[in-house]
Write a structure and sequence with these properties.
With 340 residues, the chain is mainly alpha-helical. 52% of the residues lie in helices and 5% in strands. It contains 14 helices and four strands. The radius of gyration is 29 Å and the shape is globular. Residues 1-11 have a biased composition (Basic residues).
């Protein structure tokens, strides 16, 4: 009795052969593709290109590291034990660095102009990591805080100068030591242990003197030369860096607030040194307000600076909300003697 079903002759074999031919064709096409593309980059991560662009626009050393470098004794490798200002100034430069990197800015509220610059609120606008530990820690705190706080509040919190017990954990601890270790990782400093009678302490003498020389030269040029011309360093401060003039002003004002400016001015003649200190105060007063104040050149130094800064702002399209943060921190620096 027939079931009515018939087996197709060679059906299975034909399917297997067809699959075999399809596989061979596919492999052949892949091989041809590989041969055609062997000289080309097949895949890439867009983040790699973005990170490379950011690295070209940011210097190797942060503002905090540059201030630490100026404050350190070259051979001894430690900061002055009597410097009470440097900790507070370093927290201020953290805010400056984040603003110059486009991570934070003033809250865009027209009502903000009713308040003094240090009392205006800031917000995180770019929470992506910078690769610098201290900056990333501060940025994370600002990003995750449920309420927008003012610049003066944030500097107080990061410094531990606050009565708010709920936010005492916002304090950044061991900032100077961590910055020094960061400079060791970048090859600028080295680590040694020295005995101070009752205890041993890790010190960080200069390992690469060109780094400090580059920073000191930029400070001296802006404080002593009739016209400020930036001398670039391919490794530490290349020409591709953004906000070159704003960074130089922030560096000088940060060193002045941290009481380390004298370390590189002490070898100058008395009259030149005196003019340099006056010029540093002028920069604090001029750029500690926004819109930036009228050019102050009572000592005949840095006559071109205001023009260069204005051209830089227009060329790089620096936001007014970022410039307000910049001015607010310098405003706080100018009043630090009365704050501390």
């Amino acid at each position: 009795m027939s079931s009515g079903l018939q087996r197709r002759k060679g059906g299975r074999g034909a399917s297997g052969s067809q699959r075999g031919r399809d596989t061979e064709n596919t492999l052949g096409e892949q091989q041809n593709t590989e041969i055609e593309n062997e000289d080309h980059k097949i895949a890439y991560d867009p983040k790699d290109i973005l990170n490379t662009e950011r690295e070209q626009k940011t210097p190797l050393l942060t503002l905090m590291e540059e201030i630490i470098l100026i404050g350190l004794k070259d051979k001894e490798g430690y900061l002055s034990f009597w410097n009470d200002n440097i900790s507070y100034a370093l927290r201020g430069t953290i805010i400056l660095e984040l603003a110059l990197r486009g991570k934070i800015q003033m809250v865009n509220d027209p009502a903000r102009r009713r308040f003094e610059l240090p009392e205006r609120l800031i917000e995180c606008v770019d929470g992506s990591l910078t690769g610098e530990t201290l900056l990333d820690e501060a940025l994370k705190l600002i990003k995750n805080d449920p309420s927008n706080l003012s610049i003066s509040n944030w500097i107080d919190l990061l410094s531990g100068e606050t009565w708010n017990i709920m936010k005492i954990n916002y304090q950044l601890k061991q900032v100077r030591e961590r910055l020094s270790k960061g400079l060791v990782d970048k090859g600028v400093l080295k680590t040694e242990r020295k005995n101070f009678l009752l205890f041993d302490m890790a010190t960080h003498p200069i390992n690469d003197p060109t780094a400090k020389r580059s920073v000191a030269l930029r400070i001296l040029n802006i404080l002593t030369n009739r016209n400020f011309i930036i001398e670039y360093d391919e490794k530490y401060f290349p020409q591709t860096v953004s906000h070159k003039y704003l960074r130089s002003i922030a560096l000088v004002c940060g060193c002045s607030a941290a009481n380390v400016l004298e370390n590189i001015l002490m070898d100058l003649d008395f009259e030149v040194r005196d003019k340099a200190f006056v010029r540093a105060d002028e920069l604090l007063n001029q750029f500690g307000d926004y819109p930036f104040g009228r050019p102050q050149t009572s000592v005949g130094v840095g006559l071109n600076l205001s023009t260069e800064v204005q051209e830089e702002i227009e060329k790089e399209g620096v936001s007014e909300l970022v410039l307000e943060v910049f001015a607010a921190v310098l405003n706080i620096f100018s009043k630090m003697d009365s704050i501390l």
